[in-house]
C-alpha cells in the first residue's frame, strides 16, 4: 500500500471514530436551524460551527449546489482535521431558468442581504406576472448536504431535499430567513416565514436533506 493510501486510510479511521464534526457554515439562520435539526436527531456527535474554529467561508466557485457543498465540506475538514458537513442551498424558480439558484444569497449583489434579494426576485418576476395574470409562479427551495470523513474523502455522502411552493408578489410573515417570506405553501395556507421552527424543520428542504443524510449514515 502506498504512503498516500495509508494516510487516507488512517484519516478515514480517525474521522469515523471522531465524536466531533465541523459544520461548514457561518450563516446564523442556517446554524440555528441545523442546531435544532441535529439536536432532534440525537446523534452521538458534537457539531461544531466552523466559526468557533476561526474557519472562514470557502470560495464557492462550483456551478451546482452539489459542487459547492463538497467544496465547503472539504475546506472545513482540511482546516480543522475533522469530518465536516456542509450545506449549499437556495431557491430555484423555473420560469427564471432556475435562478437565483446557487446565487440565492447574493442575488442582488450583496451577500446575505435578505431584503434586497427578495426585492430583486419580486422585480424579476413582475414582467412574467403581467403576461400571465392570475397564474401562480412555482418555485422550490433546494438543500444539498455533503459530508466528508476527511478532506480528501473520495466518496462524500450526498443528501438532497426539495421543498415545493409558490412565489408571492410581496413578503408575508416575520419568521425564518432568506426567501421564506415569499415562499407560499398552498396546502398550509402560509409562507415558510409564518411557520414555527418545529413545523418548518419537519417539512423543509433542509429537514428533508438531514433525514436523508442520517439514513445514509445508518447504513
In short:
With 219 residues, the chain is α+β, with helices and mostly antiparallel strands.
Report on this model:
The chain has 219 residues and is an alpha+beta fold. It is built from 6 helices and 8 strands. It is globular and about 55 Å long. The N terminus is likely disordered.
Helix content: 25-40%
Number of distinct beta strands: 8
The average pLDDT value, as a whole number, equals 89
Shape: globular
Are there runs of 5+ residues with pLDDT below 50, and where? 1-17
Radius of gyration: 18 Å
Note the gap between the termini: 27 Å
Query: How does the major sheet shape up?
Result: 8 strands, mixed
Task: Produce the secondary structure layout.
Blueprint: H1 3-17, E1 20-23, H2 28-41, E2 46-49, H3 65-80, E3 84-93, E4 99-100, H4 114-131, E5 138-148, E6 157-167, E7 183-185, E8 190-191, H5 197-203, H6 205-217
Parallel strand pairs: 1-2, 1-3
Antiparallel strand pairs: 3-4, 3-5, 5-6, 6-7, 7-8
Key descriptive features of the protein:
disordered N terminus, alpha+beta, 38% helix, eight-stranded mixed beta sheet, single chain, 219 residues, 6 helices
Amino acid at each position: 500500500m502506498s504512503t498516500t493510501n495509508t494516510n487516507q486510510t488512517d484519516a478515514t479511521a480517525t474521522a469515523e471514530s471522531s465524536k466531533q464534526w465541523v459544520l461548514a457554515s457561518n450563516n446564523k439562520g442556517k446554524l440555528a436551524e441545523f442546531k435544532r435539526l441535529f439536536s432532534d436527531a440525537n446523534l452521538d456527535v458534537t457539531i461544531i460551527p466552523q466559526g468557533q474554529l476561526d474557519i472562514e467561508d470557502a470560495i464557492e466557485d462550483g456551478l451546482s449546489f452539489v459542487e459547492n457543498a463538497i467544496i465547503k465540506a472539504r475546506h472545513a475538514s482540511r482546516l480543522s482535521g475533522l469530518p465536516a458537513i456542509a450545506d449549499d442551498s437556495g431557491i430555484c424558480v423555473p420560469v427564471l431558468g432556475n435562478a437565483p439558484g446557487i446565487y440565492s444569497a447574493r442575488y442582488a449583489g450583496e451577500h446575505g442581504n435578505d431584503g434586497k434579494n427578495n426585492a430583486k426576485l419580486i422585480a424579476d418576476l413582475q414582467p412574467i406576472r403581467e403576461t400571465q395574470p392570475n397564474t401562480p409562479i412555482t418555485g422550490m427551495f433546494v438543500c444539498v448536504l455533503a459530508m466528508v470523513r476527511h478532506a480528501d474523502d473520495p466518496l462524500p455522502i450526498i443528501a438532497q431535499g426539495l421543498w415545493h411552493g409558490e412565489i408571492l408578489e410581496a413578503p408575508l410573515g416575520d419568521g425564518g430567513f432568506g426567501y421564506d417570506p415569499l415562499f407560499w405553501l398552498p396546502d398550509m395556507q402560509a409562507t415558510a416565514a409564518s411557520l414555527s421552527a418545529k413545523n418548518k424543520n419537519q417539512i423543509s428542504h433542509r429537514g428533508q436533506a438531514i433525514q436523508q443524510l442520517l439514513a445514509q449514515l445508518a447504513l
